[in-house]
Amino acid sequence: MQHSQSSSSFSPDIFRDLYRIRRVEEEVARVYPTDRIKSPVHLSIGQEAISVAVCKPLRADDIVFLSYRSHAGYLAKGGDLRAMIAELYGKATGSAQGKGGSMHLVDVAHGVMGASAVVGTTIPHAIGYAYAMKVRREDRIVVCFFGDGATDEGVFDESLNFAALKRLPILFVCENNSYAIHTHQSQRHFVSNIAERARVRGIPSEVVEDDLAALLTRAEAAVAAVRRGEGPRFLECVTYRWKEHVGPGDDFHLGYRTRDEAEPWYARDAVRIAGDALDAAERQRIIDDVEKEIAEAFAFAEESPFPGKEELMKNVFAEARR
Amino acid sequence: MQHSQSSSSFSPDIFRDLYRIRRVEEEVARVYPTDRIKSPVHLSIGQEAISVAVCKPLRADDIVFLSYRSHAGYLAKGGDLRAMIAELYGKATGSAQGKGGSMHLVDVAHGVMGASAVVGTTIPHAIGYAYAMKVRREDRIVVCFFGDGATDEGVFDESLNFAALKRLPILFVCENNSYAIHTHQSQRHFVSNIAERARVRGIPSEVVEDDLAALLTRAEAAVAAVRRGEGPRFLECVTYRWKEHVGPGDDFHLGYRTRDEAEPWYARDAVRIAGDALDAAERQRIIDDVEKEIAEAFAFAEESPFPGKEELMKNVFAEARR
Amino acid sequence: MSAITRTISYVDAIREATDLEMARDEAVILFGLDVDDPKAIQGTTRGLLEKYGAERVFGTPLSEDAMTGAAIGMAMAGLRPIHVHIRMDFLLLCMNQLINIAAKAHYMYGAQVRVPLVVRSMIGRSWGQGAQHSQGLYSYFMHVPGMKVVAPTNPHDAKGTLIAAIRDDNPVMYVEHRFLHFQKGPVPEESYVVEPGRARVLEEGSDVTIVGISQALVESVRAARYLESVGVKAEIIDPIWLAPLDIDTIVESVKKTGALCVVDNGWTSCGAGAEIVARVIETIGAIQPIRVLRLGFAATTCPPTPSLEEHFYPNGQTIASAVYDLVSGQARGWMPDERADLKEIEFRGPF
Amino acid sequence: MSAITRTISYVDAIREATDLEMARDEAVILFGLDVDDPKAIQGTTRGLLEKYGAERVFGTPLSEDAMTGAAIGMAMAGLRPIHVHIRMDFLLLCMNQLINIAAKAHYMYGAQVRVPLVVRSMIGRSWGQGAQHSQGLYSYFMHVPGMKVVAPTNPHDAKGTLIAAIRDDNPVMYVEHRFLHFQKGPVPEESYVVEPGRARVLEEGSDVTIVGISQALVESVRAARYLESVGVKAEIIDPIWLAPLDIDTIVESVKKTGALCVVDNGWTSCGAGAEIVARVIETIGAIQPIRVLRLGFAATTCPPTPSLEEHFYPNGQTIASAVYDLVSGQARGWMPDERADLKEIEFRGPF
Ligand SMILES: Cc1ncc(C[n+]2csc(CCOP(=O)(O)OP(=O)(O)O)c2C)c(N)n1
Ligand SMILES: Cc1ncc(C[n+]2csc(CCOP(=O)(O)OP(=O)(O)O)c2C)c(N)n1
Ligand SMILES: [Mg+2]
Ligand SMILES: [Mg+2]
User: Fold this and answer.
1) Rounded to an integer, what distance in angstroms lies between the CA atom of residue C211 and that of residue C219?
2) Selection from C210, C215, C238 nearest residue C323 by Cα
3) In this model, does residue A2 exceed pLDDT 50?
4) Phi, psi values for residue D143, rounded to 5°
């Protein structure tokens, strides 16, 4: 952590959140080859700043919907770390008792309403949830995270339309990392202008570059506007996925992208930048805390039991509760 | 046919095409209560000018795809009138031998590739067909007709994206009559700007008002551009459905729209305007011709046999032909 | 059970069930294309907009996929959405949300969420509806675990199963045949539920068990009248709920009759009838030979022309003819003449 | 039939079939998400982009619905599209185009159009794929008239059925299980077709007929080995094509054995097994008692954790155990120990 490109100062919380997500992902990547993680993993490394910035102004009772690349959003919103790691391990103590896996993380108590493996599927859930908030006159809001690939799906446009029409309390956040698996946006869209597609629906929309300070400001403003009841907002956040699409490694050997393309993104690493803004002692205190928490979470997952066979047929249907 | 709002002169062909469609529809409406037509009918009355203007610059080997409100497009493109009426009657001589019905008109020999009852479904067929033309280096083009309601469906946006991306030889024509059944566009879209949604994809796009001369000019230009290989074009044609959504009658009694709303559209009736541009004798000759053709087509349908029971299980699968 | 004195239509039974539940529970919300338009979905939603307001009763854009997803999101938020489709065929636009999410959410999210969603879907017929306005695709929802499926055949059950569906914390596919909309029958004024997983033996008989699904039940009752004339006594079963399916009631009947005919309102291949036959045979096939027959849509696309459409659907006469062959163990070549007195079939209970 | 000397993998068999057909017929065109990416759909599309160019081999936006519609439009224009999906679960996004159009177009457009479309769809398993990356939904396509469905289980048939599918003038759903991708087996170098509607008796036996679908066939063969150890001789049938289904071959076998077990790679309710059972019983159920059993996915959402997933799928041992009970007519409580020598199961023909 030598030099910083940005002169902004960032609160210790921001560093903690960023560092924590980064390190969780790195631990997942480290453990992955041992086969103790029983689920495909889509790491957020390189994209953490978006989740952290957007979740920062959220309240505990606000709601987020995620895609399968959900680790950053889950943690930034306050999802339980131990339950997450245990879920990746397929353990009975996991967020879904091993019945969800990495692609279906959920923590309703902390407002994480669930991720889905089919691209784009949670976007309409988010508008439905926001509709419920609206008719109940709540001041909560929904944030809906998704990738650039999800915007190829028709359900994205249908959902924008409904959100605009009903003036829903929802913030759409597109994490545009330019790729859907190995296919670049330019091979999928004639014009690269996702934010415009929201604007044309009457949803105030902006592109936010890969800059932590800008992300924090723009996210705060967008969340505030939605909470004031001004209807939906849209942020297209430009970012980059450092690791392979699924799995723990790099993928430059595949040839669809180059390390040169990645370098400028590494240089702008938000985790480092946020850390540099702190004094060394404070930073170290946070690092120590986080490392301890992560070690405990992995130990918890390791020690937890697998669900027993009798779990297989439980919860296929919800039992009546009244 | 007293006064004309437009001073343009229109060719006899235009009047013939417009008058022919109008009168076919009126005949369908007249016969409908007798139950001899065995299919729900979605009449084009009031919207004929769009089909006529757009099909005018087309070649016989160009292709159109239609929605269930297909009578005008089918006839304007040169679809066989007798086969159409026979199909409405459910007769063996119908375009689909009674197996399609009013909502699935087709006449491949004349470039009418088929209509569909599920809103929006033929839009992607049109892009696929255009893709085939493109890879075969043909100079044919595809025209895809659909209503404003179809633009609510995600498949519309997905299709625009692919057409733009692949620079397909396709002209999209949205017949915006403001209603999907009884629901006004303003109850379905926050902003009424369908043409903008194509433009944002990089597809040159324009709104064409309800004016026969404008329609003819704009359609001709758009068709020419597509044929020159300039990629897709989009026309949003503002129009009005005079009759009820499905069936032969008026529907002002339902209360979702008023006769006042309709009056200005009646006053701009393209059929009358095109007729007024002709001298009375010529007009009468066309009218006589068309009336004769229509009478014959209905007589043909009346006299044709119903398909025999053995037809039920025929053509479930296509037989090998090589 | 005490006699029910009031007679209303199937349409009114649906409307009343919705009304009662919306009054009882603020969380119940009703939407879908055209629910708020002048035709009010054949009248089934009439008056509800005025009574409950445009936030709880609203039409939607033509976006079946997103609106189904939105319904799921509303359900996760604690609302109890009823999503209406005027044609079951349109569900093919939202299968991803129904099968990949609605049916699975409770399980794959570790029981942290519930999806109390009712999907009302109508099956059409006649008047040249043809290929895309006629399909009875409920077997798609019977295939996937996590969904309930119901196809009430009379006003009493239309009301009672809809109330049960609305109160259920799971996604329920509620299937209505437009011909049944015109049925009238006795319906109690108060609230009641017709519980999932219980079939009804509508008529007792000893020679053959006929299970009729949705509108095919009405045709089965007609068939039973024709069959009487050749001395065949049919036991008629209305499964009501297709998932969970009350297979025990059907098995008990087949044990007695030794012959089973399922008359379906859809294609037979991998259809509801295939499931019923397979489960009966898994249970008692080893014990006794059983004559089995499935009837349903002809294995072709639905043609609109009446000269073909009449052969696409089984009817009272063709069912009677086929069942007579089944119980006879040979082709009899018997086809009854149409009886005018069977035009109107109404269920008077007991329920 | 002469012995085939070359051995290649299922993946290579698919690649070769595609290559041969693309070389033979300019109209054949290959697309779908990621067909042109470095992973080349498990290698099945490797090298084809380089050979046939980006107009005939291309990746697409994530727009399953529109791309399926586009495939239909291309087919109407005379191309012969192969549309690839790395997960069958994603087909739920394009059911409208597949069921409402592809299956119906030829009929409802009065035979004026043809839809020679091949949809390749992969079924996954294991490694925590879970709820939405594991479904074998082919019964949905068996339900609707107008579609053919094939699920080849070995490299020989993978090639021959794909060529047949590409040459067919109808929509064909081609189902590949990822476990089978690694299978190796004898495959002729030249072009050949494995025709629709013909099943294969893989092993003869007298005590029970086991029909195994897709990867479940491999498990069924394992089960047969276990069953030998308790003296049960199973006849193993690979239906290959699920629609049209060669029911005669299955019926002949069951006539002989008196017992039928269908092992499916999907849920049983309204599944392929239900259809096979129902058709067998419709044909011979009146003549003799028949023991019947369907095995398939547990009636629950697929859990990713291995401790549950292992109970979600039938395997050689559990199949053997259940079939032993079936032929015994009672619960035997027998479960064989896993045999290491059954890890690799390869088909060496005859074909
Ligand atoms: C509907 C659907 N189609 C295809 C896939 C396969 N797939 C998994 S992830 C992915 C790329 C999604 O890209 P994007 O939305 O940009 O998210 P990112 O992975 O970049 O975070 C694809 C195509 C899928 N899961 N769902
Ligand atoms: C996918 C789908 N949803 C709903 C319907 C019912 N429906 C039939 S026509 C129609 C309105 C379509 O409006 P528009 O596209 O504007 O065409 P118009 O009737 O005005 O020509 C609707 C909702 C349908 N046929 N298909
Ligand atoms: Mg991306
Ligand atoms: Mg309209």
Assistant:
1) 11
2) C210
3) no
4) -70, -35
The reply to whether residue C131 touches residue D142, judged by beta carbons under 8 angstroms, is: no
* pLDDT tens per residue, range B21-73: 999 999 999 999 999 998 899 999 999 999 999 999 999 999 999 999 999 99
- Side-chain half-sphere exposure of A133, counting CA atoms within 13 A: 26
Burial (Cβ within 10 Å: 0-12, 13-18, ≥19) of residue A292:
exposed
Q: Answer yes or no: are the C-beta atoms of A182 and A254 closer than 8 Å.
A: yes
What's the pLDDT score for residue A246?
A: 95
d(CA C280, CA C209): 12
pLDDT at position A6 is 45
Q: How far is CA C179 from CA C14, C218, C320, in A?
A: 14, 10, 20
3-state secondary structure chain C: CCCCCCEEEHHHHHHHHHHHHHHHCCCEEEECCCCCCCCCHHHCCCCHHHHHCCCCEECCCCCHHHHHHHHHHHHHCCCEEEEEECCHHHHHHCHHHHHHHHCCHHHHCCCCCCCCCEEEEEECCCCCCCCCCCCCCCHHHHHCCCCEEECCCCHHHHHHHHHHHHHCCCCEEEEEECCHHHCEEECCCCCCCCCCCCCEEEECCCCEEEEECCHHHHHHHHHHHHHHCCCCCEEEEECCEEECCCHHHHHHHHHHHCEEEEEEEEECCCCHHHHHHHHHHHHHCCCCCCEEEEEEECCCCCCCCHHHHHHHCCCHHHHHHHHHHHHHCCCCCCCCCCCHHHCCCCCCCCC
Mutate to test the interface with A, among C109, C115, C148, C163 (most CBs of A within 10 A): C109
Q: Is the CB of A119 under 6 A from ligand 1?
A: yes
Number of residues that make up chain C: 351
Instruction: Name the band, by pLDDT with cuts 50, 70 and 90, for residue C349.
Output: low
Give A41-54 pLDDT, tens digit per residue. 999 999 999 999 99
Q: How far apart are the first and last CA of chain B?
A: 56
Closest Cα in chain B to D244: B317
Q: What is the pTM of this model?
A: 0.97
Determine the residue of chain D that is closest to B321 in CA distance: D169
Best probe of the C interface among A142, A158, A166, A322, by most C CBs < 10 A, is A158
Among the listed residues C83, C133, C156, C177, the single catalytic one is C133
pLDDT digits (tens, 9 = 90+) for C196-237: 999 999 999 999 999 999 999 999 999 999 999 999 999 999
Region D302-324: mean pLDDT is 97
Average pLDDT of chain A is 96
C106-155 pLDDT, tens digit per residue, is 999 999 999 999 999 999 887 778 999 999 999 999 999 999 999 999 99
ipTM above 0.95?
yes
Cβ-proximal residues to A72 (8 Å cutoff; 6+ apart), any chain: A21, A25, A44, A47, A48, A50, A51, A52
Ligand 2 pocket check: which of B119, B183, B185, B243 to mutate, most ligand atoms within 8 Å of Cβ?
Answer: B119
The radius of gyration of chain C's CA atoms, rounded to the nearest angstrom, is 20
Q: Whose CA is nearest to atom 8 of ligand 2?
A: B119
The catalytic residue among D85, D133, D156, D181 is D133
Which residues, in sequence order, are bridge partners of residue A116? A67
Give B322's pLDDT tier (boundaries 50, 70, 90).
low
Between the alpha carbon of residue D17 and those of residues A195, D58, D156, the distances in Å are 43, 18, 10
Establish whether C189 is a catalytic residue: no
Give the pLDDT of residue C127: 75
User: Which ranges of chain A does DSSP label H, i.e. alpha helix?
Assistant: 12-31, 48-55, 71-76, 81-88, 122-135, 154-165, 194-199, 212-227, 259-267, 270-276, 280-303
Ligand 3 center to residue A184 CA distance, Å?
8
